[in-house]
DNA sequence: TCTGGGGTCCTAGGACCC
DNA sequence: TCTGGGGTCCTAGGACCC
């Protein structure tokens, strides 16, 4: 019963790019990037593009020459497709182990120590995961197995980068010298939790490799970097500090914002955008059964053009009573917007954040509550959510969000929503 | 012309309490 | 001359993740 924990980290290779390729197999060897919202930056790159030295997050316009030279295909992001593909992968993984944490759109942790033997051990289980995900969804994954999450991340990194693992690495199937050898070979900056700020500071202390970090003194790490780095170090030594989070905790804040396709000056356009984002955020709020007590609204000009006049500001509007009513939240957000809006600026972005969230079921009553209003609001919101679930997002929304939406983001080369729209299904000839 | 959109956790310091 | 000790809460800022 007290077997050493075994975490498996399953991670889809070049996730967004791979999703595109599933439906356009002819692109299997074409260099591809997928762009962020508004067709801004490269957020996913195929191996061919990585080989050309294109880094994560490079603005598309800066790589246009390179793209032309090497025939790089660029896709606008298609989150409807990626979200659906992500759910399909999760379904396959749940079959392998019921103890699963969906960590991000393209990654999941599984606890496998009690089930691995059913597949002939962790390594064999990893192979079968790879095979089945590929066969059932078309997506390539790598699997890393280890006794802590941080080590599983490292094992996954090795499975991806080192051909000898063939996509599956069980760190503790290696001999100790082998394991430490790999650690000595990998930069400390690759460790989960060590980012671009801390890596150079570690280096200054003579901590270069994963092995150096593993062997560092926890006390020293704690005094220089705090408890987080101390934990990273313990995890690297095989002492599990992080647990599997099977149930995603409710969010403490919900944000919705976008850059505009073109800069915007009129209050009317900003109002439409803000109302649109509130619509979406309120939907998420109700989905997790929360209410919020304050709405933050902000506007931004183009921060890459400091020579232009800037009005980058925001304000928080408190609600009379916590609410999940789109109309109440929209009213608050638009009120806030009115107070920060100044004419004569070229706005590039606006957004809202719902904060001070709490569980709807455990609300403090208020002297000023009107129960009848509450019942009406709940009925309207529930009808709205049902309509939108049935007929698609945004089918029913507030009038304030507008009909033209001239400010909406660029998305010039989005592939069809192959798996969620009848009229965009792939056709087999 | 063109530069994403979400989130979380931890720490330090100040205000305040008894 | 000398000026306690223990705590909470909040906020801003910094770091990280995908």
UniProtKB/TrEMBL annotation:
Domain UmuC positions: 7-195
GO biological process, one term: DNA repair
UniProt keyword DNA repair, yes or no: yes
Positions in coiled-coil regions: none
Keywords: DNA damage, DNA repair, SOS mutagenesis, SOS response
GO terms of molecular function: damaged DNA binding; DNA-directed DNA polymerase activity
Keyword Cytoplasm: no
InterPro entries recorded: DNA/RNA_pol_sf, DNA_pol_Y-fam_little_finger, DNA_polymerase-Y, DUF4113, Rev_trsase/Diguanyl_cyclase, UmuC
GO (cellular component) term, any one: cytosol
Family the entry assigns: Belongs to the DNA polymerase type-Y family.
The protein's name in its UniProt record: Y-family DNA polymerase
């Amino acid at each position: 019963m007290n077997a050493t924990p075994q975490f498996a980290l399953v991670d889809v290779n070049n996730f967004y790019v791979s999703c595109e390729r599933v439906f356009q197999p002819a692109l299997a060897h074409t260099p591809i990037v997928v762009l962020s919202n508004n067709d801004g930056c490269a957020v996913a790159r195929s191996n061919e593009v990585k080989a050309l030295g294109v880094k994560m997050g490079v603005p598309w316009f800066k790589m246009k020459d390179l793209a032309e030279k090497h025939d790089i295909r660029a896709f606008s992001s298609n989150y409807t497709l990626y979200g659906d593909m992500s759910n399909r992968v999760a379904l396959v993984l749940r079959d392998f182990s019921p103890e699963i944490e969906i960590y991000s759109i393209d990654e999941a942790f599984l606890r496998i120590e009690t089930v691995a033997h059913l597949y002939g051990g962790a390594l064999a289980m990893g192979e079968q995961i790879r095979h089945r995900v590929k066969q059932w969804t078309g997506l390539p994954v790598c699997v890393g197995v280890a006794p802590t999450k941080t080590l599983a991340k490292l094992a996954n990194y090795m499975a991806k980068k080192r051909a000898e693992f063939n996509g599956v690495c069980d760190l503790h199937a290696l001999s100790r010298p082998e394991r430490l050898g790999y650690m000595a070979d990998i930069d400390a900056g690759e460790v989960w939790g060590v980012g671009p700020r801390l890596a150079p500071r570690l280096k200054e202390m003579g901590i270069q490799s994963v092995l150096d970090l593993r062997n560092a003194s926890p006390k020293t790490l704690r005094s220089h970097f705090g408890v987080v780095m101390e934990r990273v170090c313990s995890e690297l030594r095989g002492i599990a500090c992080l647990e599997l989070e099977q149930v995603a905790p409710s969010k403490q804040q919900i944000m919705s914002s976008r850059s505009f396709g073109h800069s915007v000056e009129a209050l009317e356009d900003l109002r439409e955008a803000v109302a649109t984002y509130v619509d979406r955020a309120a939907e998420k709020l109700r989905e997790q059964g929360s209410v919020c007590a304050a709405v933050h609204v902000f506007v931004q000009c183009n921060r890459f053009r400091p020579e232009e006049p800037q009005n980058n500001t925001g304000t928080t509007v408190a609600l009379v009573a916590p609410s999940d009513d789109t109309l109440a939240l929209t009213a608050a957000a638009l009120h806030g917007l009115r107070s920060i809006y100044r004419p004569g600026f070229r706005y590039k972005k606006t957004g809202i954040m719902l904060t001070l969230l709490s569980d709807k079921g455990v609300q403090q009553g208020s002297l000023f509550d009107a129960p009848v209003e509450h019942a009406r609001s709940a009925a309207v919101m529930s009808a709205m959510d049902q309509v939108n679930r049935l007929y698609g997002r945004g089918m029913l929304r507030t009038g304030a969000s507008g009909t033209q939406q001239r400010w909406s983001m660029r998305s010039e080369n989005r592939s069809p929503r192959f798996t969620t729209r009848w009229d965009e299904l792939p056709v087999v000839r």
